[in-house]
Amino acid sequence: MKNLLGDGRRVTIPSFPEIVVDPDFDRLANRLPEAPRLLIVIVNYRTAELTVDCLESLEPEIEANPGTAVAVVDGGSGDDSAARIQEAVERRGWSSWVGVMPFERNGGFSFGNNRAIAPAMALNSPPEYCLLLNSDTIVRPGALGILLEFMDKNPKVGIAGTRLEDPDGTPQRSAFRFPGVLSELERGTRIGLVSKLLSRWVVAPPPPAHACRTDYVAGAAMIVRREVFESIGLMDEGYFLYYEETDLCRRAAVAGWPCWYVPEARVVHLVGQSTGVTSTRRRRPAYWFESRNRYFLRHLGRVRKTMADVAWTCGFAQWWVRRRLLRKPDPDPPYFLSDFVRHNFLPKRFRR
After folding, report:
1. Burial class (CB in 10 A: 0-12, 13-18, 19+), 309
2. Are the CB atoms for 179 and 185 separated by under 8 Å?
3. Which residues contact 168 (CB under 8 A, 6 or more apart)?
């Protein structure tokens, strides 16, 4: 293996800007096999205990799937997360397959993943696959082998996602359709008849029971073929958090790399534990709206984005009135409607 990752070394992936390679990847690269099969990337942000639990669930999977390594990228946690993870790695004897890469700033989900994927793609023998794995996941036995077997048997598939589930095995919705104008109307309106009429455009349908093609899968556990990155570039760092996997899958589909959902591979997802964004007790952060705006502008254009914004706003406004009249509990983040209007219809100076 060519050791090309010294201090300050820059690598360039097609269609993606230069990334300065961190020397911590050099230490991980030296532990990769000559023909690395799978690189698993876990981005940690102040979730040291969850990350260690995730690594513990991976231990038997690593033994069953030789040629696999794990890069834990700490995205500027500002606490002792990286040190605690490193201590656990050394104490539990995982150093042969886990490398910890601490960074000083939190650049978001795409930023963190790219810091491990970019140098891996620059190796003489880059990994065949990269698995993006949330820190708040627990990998069920056999999941990695099932994913790898599926990708090997389906060389035209670019991306595949696992079945995400609660700790008790209840499946979560993790196979999705690309959002658009009608899907935003359905999401905002929340009327059963409307949802039934627009069922073909519901973004998060009930999880399928068998492997099938889908528009995109959840980034919490998503395997990507090397050729996808070589074709379209890495993840877009313009997304701080959310919509980045939707963007990646859509760009891949345009380039001829479809996405599949593989429910036989099961991963527990402790929803929201790594970010807290899904909690209805917290106001939706500005970066969620910024990511949504970036995705809709890129893939729908300004006119259709405006149509989608209006559709959601009108639908949600009637839901808001109806909920209050019926005295139903509020399931949404505080100020959700006003924040949506502010971030989508007002000039930038009013969005903060």
Report:
1. buried
2. no
3. none
